[in-house]
Amino acid sequence: MESQFPGMDYDFLRYMGVTAENQRRIQSHYMPYFEQCSRVVDLACGDADFVELLVERGIEVVGVDSDDKAYAATAAKGLPVIKQDVFEWLVEQPDDSVDGVFSAHLIEHLPYPKVIELIEHSYRILQPGGVIVLATPNARSLFSHLEMFYTHFGHITFYHPRLVTFFLDRAGFVDGQFGENPQTASPLLAKARALLEERPTFIAHLESPDFELPTVEALADETSAATGQPDERPRLNYENVIPSQGKTFIHSLLWRFKRSLTNWMVRPLLDDLAVEVDKALAGERDYARQTTDALSAQIHTLANQVHTLANDVRSLRTVLNDLRHLRRRQLSALEDEARLLRSEMNTAIQSVQDMNGAFETFIWARKPQSESALVVEENATIPSVQTEDEPSDSP
Description:
The protein is 50% helix and 12% strand. It is an alpha/beta fold.
């Protein structure tokens, strides 16, 4: 492919928006596996981001890649890279010449016989105790299948990490383990996970207002009092006696004279005036009685209407209370259903997520110290690897 379309792989990575920062973040996950190494090779190093990480740690490293543009770009940065076919370079290397082999996203471009050849050559050039790390698209990730693997023109097949572990074991490597790179966790189900954290909007307590019923008893009492007959008022009476002005004979004589004069001249006038006043008052009393009777009848009618309305309100309150209790039971049932639904969704999403792990998996193994001793020296440091049964976020 490179001979026919030189620089295509480099151009494709630029087209897909691959950045050095992102690559360094992803490949930094593999740094702990090479911290004890003194000379490492990065097969199909591409942009040589991992090469640069090792250089920064002071570890001797060489990157090998046949892409013209990738080599030109990395060489221009002064990185130790070689433009050569990976298999040609492996054949030329002497035995036990490196103590670390790294390759990211190479084996999925190869048929399985070439993968076995790459592993066997790596075993040969590794020193006893040397390590190998192979990174490849995760065959157990939906994101890899849907959004990653088939977007690259050079991919041939997925390699399940168990199969690659078998190839390594068959070649003589020991302690083979595989895991997922947590720096490549898939964003495929982010919306679904966010949905689980939301509280369903349809669950809301519906509280009916507490009505204050009109108090009609007091109104009825007032109505009864208002409809009673008004009290009969007595006619206008006055005392027809002129009070005495003293006890002497003169006073008595004058009093008799005044009484006689009054009875003759004033009293007839007062009697006529009293009669007229009584007639006027009787008319006012009759008008007031008629008005009061009419108002009483209206008040009785209104009181009956208020009683009827109060009974209707009482009935309505009973119905509303029944509805409120029914709604509370419905809400409780809905909440139970929502909790069950969220639990089932969580189980389903988790099940899918288990199949949709990080889009990059890696396989780690080491060459034994000798052909007869398959144990690690006591002072050797081996990073732990995220396995299928024991997930971990760090190496």
